[in-house]
Design a protein that fits this description.
4 copies of one chain form a homotetramer. Chain A is α+β, with helices and mostly antiparallel strands. Chain A is 26% helix and 21% strand. Chains A, B, C, D: GO terms for molecular function: chorismate synthase activity; FMN binding.
């Protein structure tokens, strides 16, 4: 209720501040009988952790996860699974005057006015570091969904500032530091140059991230409010720095005619996927396709006009180690949020309609990713 | 939990199908002591009702609302307020073969596979008609927010298919059938022509809608998941036919640098509103600004390729009366959803932080609407 | 969240005041495919309605239920089911000075101080009349549980004031106006005399009600907070006038030794049912057995010392038509609440563990009722 | 939703198993600005911890609590507060054949059938050890309630098996190992003898616990389902081993007449407190009074008839260290649950009605405790 729990049936309650003793989460509702150990979770954490290239924050956080409960003899028991990640690299001295003044574009101002108190160390609770426990929880969700339905998640950066990255193949995503689904070396070099320039200038840039889920049963989602796409929008807009969310054709559908937008059905499946895998709030069995806009990092070295707590004008400069593009590490996070939405709806569907209906032969096979 | 309730503290549970006996909702959590009668609600319903121009469905629904509970001697009592709207114009005969086959782009397919049964009359539960009770509930929310904080809501259509409508002034919104904030007669004529042509062609088109809320206290929203913008995205994506949501600069922020995107603060307020009134998930006190993409109506007269319940290929034609652009009537609905999100967060903030903090002098006055 | 919704997966949101235009509820989460019409619901409403004997209020309410949504061609569709009951016999003139003063033992005082406004007509929202929609909703729950598991519900009055009613057989429950499971004509006569005397004296009396559910699958309930017995206690204590709840051996377990209390297991089932069908918060497959204490009606003709809204001393006399023992009509209500708890847990169990586990061969057959 | 979170606005999500690496909880919704450190929490944990007298389990658990988040510079920030307690004394070898068979009266049987897997070490999740994090969370709730309203909590054991403990004075509660509110040395000696005898016999016994809350504002609680007393019943019945709950006069109200039960009002307060401080589900401002029945410990040394996982008959003996009366340590736990219910309702009331109404002059001062 106070906004730190995600999901209703597979609920993830997170805690922690960027520079406090620890961060973590409690996962309530994981079905029993799933084989699970830290080895299932750590690789997903490693995908999002800082310090993996020169284009992301150089803060060193091993982000080693410990399972505190809910697993017995390597199998989930149906009781809450607590994940704990101790904070290690807590250099707080770098934050300059930001404890007394507000960074433009940052949560400093709103936390202060909401609570009357805030933890300024590393952004406190508003730090993107708090996505780590979620990625950990989603690793469990992904494993379960994969076992049940063969579901897989894929994601890539499709735009970095004004550099558009045409989709080539998912296999490229891990060959470059940007999660770009492209094998175009010149394009990757352009991206690296753009990042180097920004870093020197003490500035930052936005990005667009695409994620998809494949092999989803038909029927997930609720008819009016807890629509599958509504919950996806909620999940994505809740990621730090996200300012826009699209499902399927997204904003392109504004200019489409109905005769073009509506994906025709054939006995062997849908033709096209403007729907993004959701019709009337319920999954069609096609790929779920989502695209998000990530704003530029608000903590930059460039001095900017602001005010302090007493309302006096000040210039704010942020020191410390920040990602010049928070979008770079956002791909695994967006995948994670999508996985959390889907497992919640899968469990809800099971409550409402039982196991059987999920097994309905899917006459709507997933579209090839390139068809987006 | 089963997706028919919106909001946690000001909860709206809706019921009804397009062509069943009645539609309505139960509002739980309206604060006591608010003067209220049907006269506060009916005008909002009239703004969204069908049959007001030739560009929307000619279905005639008076949509007369009755308050069944929660009000005594003209004042809310703190107990649930039930709103009832009887369905009157239930011509079901026009629906042709759609009871046995699935319209492309429509919820027919997913409802059938989820539930194994569906009410095909007028789209059943998936009909946009179900936004009527929500608009009714939001009329109450708007009144309360206005009394408490002076909050006002404004909305307009900013794009119809490929016709962009440059913002001129809110005063124009009610002078044309499109909710366009423009006094440009030639532009309005172009829109009318485009709609007439579509109607003749038996096709439909998408639209973009902008809504804002002004005079919002600083501090509404939760830090991690129930962020104000996440809940807005959830609310907007849940509206029938919405495929994309933006807050503030939205997808434009992908190409922005941090030094440009971050709204600077001065002792008299923010400069710019790329944030759309939300930082770190919490309201800044600026205008909340939201933009949504609405797909073209999926029920069109043009015959399309589809399948029937048994998976056999069929051609589907939809008869009956449909909006060729569901976006035309979407403006009051989007305003309504925004109002429901805001009252919920206002009550939650009061729970967490008490009355006092809401009264914090707002050093961040709302930006003029034109500054979007 | 504001306390007018019962249940999480089979959610019942009620509305209405005793003497307002209507009462009713919206049921969200009823599984699709259940055959349903008003004829399934009305008989349960008739069991609790007033005016059926001289021992209950003579208020005449036909309590005719109308299904407004969620059913198509005689089958539930998975969408919300709204039930509407119009109020008809609204004689408000009988309530004397109670609009300005507070009846001892009644909600008048607390509603006034909580909300600053209250609907005094017939007790407004605090009237036991508001149990009618719940009984209606529970009729649907009972039907589903019976189809799935063969579950049946039984209830009886086991004590009226100081008259204890020894259990003989469930078949007697409908042969007397008290829901007594006894064929002892002399005992029934004693109860009738006691009630006549009370009515003449303008006073009221308490009662004890027992309810059981038979044929419940093993495994329903959550380990820590949403224990099956905790949710039953919540449901029962929420019934108007209830002051105590017991599961299984209840308060008798205070004096029991562990070697006596713990029900032994054998290959063919449990020996004894001190547990009341719940161990560690989870159903054992035995009968669920519950007992509740109902306080005497607070609206009595006997004048009593009280205060008015301004804090001045007054004498309060209640006129109008009241049950001298609200416990008499409480049996179907207690059964209804038990049914609502069980369907919610049945759906939750299905979400968590799937259909299969519910089918686990139950080596713990229900105990015969007499074994309580 | 999956039953490991208590409370809606002050939500406590617990995790952990008796003999796993750690237990703990995440508290979401604690208002900001409350001074807080481990020193506020540890004393409450110490009141319930094992090993404090020979009458409770000799298991040694220091139960040292660590705050992981939500506190900055000694003050709560409004973000989640995570409490961690490492398990230290994990002697698992003592449990004999209970990993393969089911103890009568214990959750072994139901966990196994629900989940298909269970952690048998020390009772796993069903251990009373899991009340420790709740007591820790409640220490925070108590502190906040005390600061806001001067609320205080008191509790005592009023019956041990068949030994009734007449209430003398709260000051005695900490002078004996039973939380008895009695200075009668002979009575205490009788209780000690009874416990020694039980321990020797390898058996266990039940108990009755009373708890009260004083200085509660009028107006807390919801009208229909989330009644204050319903939520208290839920909280209390959820404590391990509780089989019955009473509010105010409880089961005694069955035999009371309305003219006796209803507490009269005078300009200076209520006369009597049969209501237990709740009318119509809403607090009156009087003391909240609650009484609970605790069954005898189910883990006893006496051999008992049972079955193993395969349904074969076995004799079960429990070794290891168990409380012969779990009721002895239940008093601080019952206080804790009451505190958690009250803070949740206090915050909810603030959401609904704002700060002001809580300050309504309370014309209903709390009754002296002895008046129960």
């Amino acid at each position: 209720m106070s906004g730190n729990t995600f999901g209703k049936l597979f609920s993830v309650t997170t805690f922690g501040e960027s520079h406090g003793p620890a961060i973590g989460c409690v996962i309530d509702g994981c079905p029993p009988g799933l084989p699970l150990s830290e080895a299932d979770i750590q690789p997903e954490l490693d995908r999002r952790k800082p310090g993996t290239s020169r284009h992301v924050t150089q803060r060193k956080e091993p982000d080693t996860v410990e399972i505190l409960s809910g697993v017995y003899q390597g199998v989930t028991t149906g009781t809450p699974i607590a994940l704990l990640i101790r904070n290690e690299d807590q250099r707080s001295k770098d934050y300059g005057n930001i404890t007394e003044s507000f960074r433009p574009g940052h949560a400093d101002y709103t936390y202060w006015h909401k609570y009357g108190v805030r933890d300024p160390r590393g952004g406190g609770r508003s730090s993107a570091r708090l996505t780590a426990p979620v990625v950990g929880a989603a690793a469990i969700a992904k494993k379960w969904l994969n076992q049940q339905y063969g579901t897989v998640f894929k994601g890539c950066m499709s735009q970095l500032g004004d550099i558009v990255v045409p989709f080539q193949d998912w296999s490229h995503v891990h060959d470059n530091p940007f999660f770009a689904a492209s094998g175009d070396a010149a394009l990757i070099a352009r991206m690296e140059d753009a990042m180097d320039e920004l870093r020197k200038a003490g500035d930052s840039i936005g990005a667009r991230i695409d994620v998809i889920a494949q092999n989803i049963p038909v029927g997930l989602g609720q008819p009016i409010y807890d629509k599958l796409d509504a919950d996806i929008a909620y999940a994505m807009m809740g990621i730090n720095a996200v300012k826009g969310v699209e499902i399927g054709a997204g904003f392109k559908s504004v200019e489409q005619k109905g005769s073009v937008h509506g994906d025709s059905l054939t006995p062997t499946g849908f033709i096209g996927n403007n729907a993004g895998g959701v019709l009337g709030g319920i999954s069609t069995g096609q790929d779920i396709t989502v695209s998000i806009a990530i704003k530029p990092t608000s903590s930059i070295r460039t001095p900017r006009q602001s005010i302090d707590k007493d309302g006096n004008p000040v210039m704010v400069e942020t020191f410390g180690r920040h990602d010049p593009c928070v979008g770079i590490r956002a791909t695994p996070i967006a995948e994670a949020m999508l996985a959390l939405v889907l497992i919640d709806h899968a469990l809800m569907h099971r409550a409402q309609c039982g196991d059987v209906r999920v097994a309905t032969p899917n006459i709507a096979p997933a579209m090839p990713p390139a068809a987006r």
